[in-house]
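Recall that a protein's primary structure is simply its ordered list of amino acids. Everything else, from secondary elements to tertiary packing, is in principle encoded there. The following example makes that idea concrete.
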Amino acid sequence: MMDADEREVYLFLQGQTQFVPATSICRSAGGKQRFRKSPDWAKPVLLRMLERGIVEMDAPDGYRLKPMPKSNVPKRWVSPHIAAILKKSGGKFDSIMREEGEVDAYYNSL
């Protein structure tokens, strides 16, 4: 389970596709006040997340969320209304991500 600091960094990195420098994460994830009080607050958090396998690091100190492992069947996002209609039809739709929390649950389990 992620603590509050890890969650803050996770939510910031969730919208990023490229590797983000640690200084940018420290500046943007915690807000101005937190950055002014402690400019390197996120670095120990990032190291913990790196050890747990939540983030990955490139050579010049950039971080991003580690991609979820791909299954054989690609999953597609579906609105809750359409998911309910598909469920009522009785078919098997295992390749559909019904809830937004599935991605969060994956990273929380690491």
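The CA atoms of residues 88 and 102 lie 21 Å apart. The radius of gyration is 17 Å.
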